[in-house]
Fold each of these.
Amino acid sequence: MDTYQSIVESLQQKGFRITQIRSALIRIFSKSRMPLSAEAVLKRLKAHKVTIYREIDFLVQQHVLQSVALGDRKKRFELAGRPHHHHAVCVKCNRIEDVMLDGHLQKEIRIIEKNKKFVITSHSLEFFGLCNNCLAT
């Protein structure tokens, strides 16, 4: 079963209607390979701004989407429940790529917790630079 269908069925089992706009949002985020802002979604859909924001908030509350902060104060969203990852962001064209890190980061987190006597409940680690396309220009 694909991601779109499993999300729709999960929401329906909880008693929620799958409206046309809700379905379109789920489809857009299911196909996206990078976090999207509400403004980017608005460009793809013909809907009222308030409706898009309200539906994105609903999908966040239902743990279908999660918020992604990339340091530019622009809130972006991606599907929740994906394997833990970080992002590489091109500072010229704003292209965003997922970055998967191996277990070394978990070791560093444990060291920080021990040395600082601090319990880390989450973290954000993003990389900023130039993508191959922007380097070539």
Amino acid sequence: MHDKDEIKFSSLKAALFITVSVMVIEIGGGLFTRSLALLSDGFHMLVHILALGLAFLALKIATQLPTSKRTFGLHRIEIFAALLNGLILWALAGGIIWRAILRIENPVPIQGKEFLIIAFIGLAANLLVMSKLKGHRDLNFRGVYLHILGDTLSSVAIIFGAFWILFTNQYLVDSILSIIIALVIVLSSFKLLKDSLCILLEATPKGIKLDRVIKEMMKIEGIIDVHHIHLWALCSNINVISAHICVGDVKVKETTKITKELKRQLEKFNIKHATFQFECLKNHNHKELEEIKH
């Protein structure tokens, strides 16, 4: 296992321990204070635990070597886990909104002081977990980070609500905060779902323009044309390309040199797997080129 993977595992373990501890405190505190916002945030933590667990599992599986049956390994597990996280978040948001609407019709008294103390504990824990996860580029890590970021914003809102209830006894704010939490969950997970689906549908990787890739490839001496290009993402940090490369009447050893140069040029796009099929075009015959393309 690489040092980077060890760091990721260590970060996930620490984040998981902190999140479980705070979840128990918030759910228990929500039941004690009768706060739906605090209880919702506690169950939101439960989703974080699932997200962290899936991220840990995905990272563990992704480190396994490719086999004859899975030649790319299991990198896509990361994307499936990220997609599942996003869908669970949306389901959770729907449940929170439904409960909040019921509470608006029938407000429930809430114990403000205890509510405030637990809210501060939740905020401190979220900030600590975010510091453990910050800086990792994997999509699944980003998904977990978005979970915690959304909950951090929720904690800030909950603290405001706790002060409001403490000084005004207006319990309606608890339901309003619950709906805000749900909307934060939906917004923070939308991008995660979109990115996951784009990868699963093998769309062109985010942030890469195919025209620019072709332009960089055409800069290499000896290449006449590039066509039949397929560019997709295997997971959040591995891009893959296959293409037909038209060259003149050259020797095989020259195509080897071109291949090395192509791979070097494509590293700037984070393309780590490349497959090229070379086609010979004598005397740069444009008619022949069109026939090859079709």
Amino acid sequence: MKILLIGANGQLGSDIMAVFGTKEIVPLTHGDIEIADLEQSRKVLEAHNPAVVINTAAYHNVPECERNPEKAFLVNSVGLRNLSEICLDHRITLVHISTDYVFDGKKSSPYSESDIPVPLNIYGVSKLAGEYFVRRVEKHYVVRVSSLFGKTGCRAKRGGNFVKTMLHLAKTKGKIQVTSNIICSPTFTKDAAAKIKEMIVQNYPSGIFHAANGGFCSWYEFALEIFSQAEIKINVEPKIEGEVEEGVRRPLYSPLISEKTRPVRDWREALKAYLIEENVL
């Protein structure tokens, strides 16, 4: 089975490459394919003739999406319209990575696949529009993830992620403030990648799936757990954020659970595995 991976050099893409192995995956980066360009994308996909396309490409700088909605919709929505059209024409399975930001955070318990999305910002709206395009493909998986951390780091954050940021601040600051009222499901990209492989290899039925680590916490609690596991002493103070920050409305509560797949390990266990991989433990 030939699999084409778009965004192979990203934080999640790198771990998808790792769990599948290089023999099964054809890696593509932004230099190889521009999903916002229908004809260029068609040429690339037809040249490779894959059975499966996994798309991890996205414009996910949330404040930038708010300032530049045209680009957000071009990549996150029109790009998926293009991929879905090509996959429809050639009966290719399309796997697309979406986000917890399709929800508004008004619920008091974790969001499952059956909950109705109500995005608050341009990023969330553009990602939800992309989901709808993907769902018209005969065989498809929309995989929502949350608060990713992985060895490669996020390209939009210059290779960083929340865990790396906290470890860096611990070396340079005596005291830090971390948001305590935004609740999420921290997710190790290696675990999300393994779940995506499971869906494809076990031929799950088409649909929407949540692939986050088990449990949930605030960013403040996440930071405390990082420092506890790494045995770092630092003064961490909780900070309250409003629903609107930097001109962007964000969900204050967006942890994910799945009604459709076996549970992924707890985020604390995943964090430990990541810290071991990073040679912190």
